[in-house]
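Entry 14. Structure prediction run on the chain below.
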Amino acid sequence: MKDASADELIRASRVVAGGGAWIDPEVAGRLIAGQRRLLPGDPSEAKVIATLTEREREVLVLMAKGCLNSEIAALLGVGEATVKTHVSNLFGKLGARDRAAAIVFAYESGFVSTGLVGGAST
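Output returned:
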């Protein structure tokens, strides 16, 4: 964190240099709360997914496959601006800050999978 003391920075550096992991305690609480929301079987995930339109679901699957907005637009036969609107709506509905967070939600919720485990196949 920007306001970390010199002692905290040294302690964190030593932990990481020793092969450990360091998360600032201020961030840890938010991280854990966010991960709890994404636990498999969390009923809130099903509710969130239920709010997605069919097109938003298609866009999310293609995002999870690594498609760019221009590629999604071409695959779905819509304009890139339309895809951007769908992506923006997904961010709002999923509570995602960015594309990576939306993709993480898609995989962790089981909405999409690598094809190795259950869930909607990508």
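Residues 116-122 have pLDDT under 50 and may be disordered.
Filed with the rest of this week's runs.
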